[in-house]
Amino acid sequence: MSAEIETQSSEASQLELDERFMRVALGLSAQGLGLVSPSPLVGCVIVSPAGQIVGEGFYVYDNIDHAEKIALDQAGREAHNATAYVTLEPHAHHGRTPPCTEALIRAGIARVVYAIDDPNPLVAGSGGEALCQAGLEVTTGILAHEAAHLNDAYLHFQRHGRPFVHLKMACSLDGKIGARRDESHWLTGDLARARVHELRHYSDAVLVGANTAVIDDPLLTDRSGRPRRRPLVRVVLDHGLATPAGSRLVSTIREAPVLIFTSSSTIVGESHLKDTGVEIVPVSTVKIDPNEVLANLAGRGIQSVLVEGGPIIAAAFLAAGLVDKITFFIAPQIIGGDGPQVIGPAALADTARLRDVQVTRHGDDTEISGYLEELSH
User: Fold this and answer.
1) What DSSP character marks residue 375?
2) Short-list 61, 51, 60, 64, CA closest to 24
3) Active site residue 68
4) Alpha-carbon 295 to chain mean position
5) CB within 8 A of 22, min separation 6: which ones?
6) Which one of 56, 68, 78, 308 is the catalytic residue?
7) What DSSP string runs through 328-371?
8) Please, are residues 307 and 235 in contact by the beta-carbon 8 Å criterion?
9) Which of 39, 220, 297, 320 sits CB 3.0–4.6 Å from 234 for a disulfide?
C-alpha cells in the first residue's frame, strides 16, 4: 500500500511540475500575439534533469526559427537528457525550417511534453509519432484547454477552413446601443476602449456594416501600440456602396487596407470610390452572404475576424451560425425608449449559451466574453 501511495504522490508531483513549466511556455507563446499569423503561437521551455530552465523561445513569423530551435540554441549542451515543454505539437515535416522533431532528437532531449496536437494536415500527429519512434518519452494534454484558447483562431482555421469570428458589441444595461439609429456616441470609457484595441491587435481583420461606416465614421485601426506583422484589414459590408469617399476609413487607406463587399449594381469603375485605394469586392447575391465574405477572406490568408457591428451585421452572423466567440462590453447606463438593441431581431432560432465565460472590469464597464461552442483539442 505504501508503494502505491508513493507512486501516486510521485505522479501528482510530476503533473504539478509539468503544469508549472507549461505555463511558462504558454506565457512565452503569447509574446507572439500579432506577430505570427497565419502561423500558430508557439512557446518552448527546456528544463534540465535538475529542474532548471536552461532554454526559452517563442515563435515570430518573420524570425523564421521556431520556438523549439530558439530554446535549444539557448540551452546548448544542457539540452542533453532535458525535458522540452512545447505549447503545440512539434512539426516533423520540411517547411520554412527543418523539422523541429529532428532538432529535439539531435539535441538529446529525453522527454517532450506538448499541450495540444496540431490539426494542420502537414503535422496532425506525425510530430508526436516521430518523437516516440526515436525513443523519446512523450506526454500530451498538459494545460490543453488553456493552449487551445490561446491558439483558437489558428486551430479553427485549420479545422474548418474559414476565419475564426469574434463578435464584439457594446451596450447599455438595458441592451441598447444608443437612443436613436442615426446617433453615434461612446457608451464605454477609456479603459474598455483600450481593451477593444487589444482585441483588434489579436485579429487579422475587423468587420462592420455600412450603417456603422456611415454613421460612426470609424477608423477601425489597431491603436494598441503593439507591433504587428500584417496590417489590420478593415472590412465593410456595404450593400448599396454608401461608404463616403471622404470617410476616415478611406482617407487612412495608407495605414491599413479597406475591403468593401457590395451587391450594388454600380459599376466599380464608375463608383465614387474609384482611385481611392479601396478594394471593392462584388458578391454573387443581392443580399450579402456572410459565408461568401468569410470564404473570400480565407482565400486571403485571414484567419480571424473581429466583427464590431452593428446590430444588423451581428444578427446576420449569428443567424448563419458563424460566430465562434462573443465579447460584450456593458456600460452602467440605462437608455430606455425605442433605441436600437445590441442584436438585431431574429438573430437565433434557439437560445445560445456561452461557455468558458470570463468577466472582467474595465473601470465602470464590464466585459463578458465566452465561446459559443466548446473548443475541441
Assistant:
1) P
2) 51
3) yes
4) 17
5) 45, 85, 87, 113, 115, 142, 143, 147
6) 68
7) EEE-S----TTPPBSS-TT--SS----EEEEEEEETTEEEEEEE
8) no
9) 220
